[in-house]
Specification:
The protein is mainly α. The protein is 61% helix and 5% strand. The chain contains 7 helices and 2 strands, in the order ααααααββα. Strands 1-2 form a two-stranded antiparallel sheet.
Amino acid sequence: MKKLLIAGIVGLMAVTVSVRAGDPKSQYEQSCAKCHGADGKGDTKMGKKLGARDYTDAKVQADMKEDAAFKAIKEGLKDADGKSLMKAAADISDDDIKALVTYMRTFKQ
């Protein structure tokens, strides 16, 4: 009986972790907010250093194309000299990246 209970708890924990992994807000906070800020303004020390865009700006949002944003998250970004500006997303599914791009759209004011 104890083994069954333990197996059930472990299974429930695994489901909870996988649900969180699919949550775009949590993913953004974990992977993006350090540079882009929790509010999407890019007004962080690292964001200012790397020139992070202000995703609350309607023009920035209008210029942001889904395919380019998807590619930037999936493959990372480099400047003209080849220096890494943003690391490629590790262990994030394509569906989660699409959800992340959609979440970034919510910052538009």
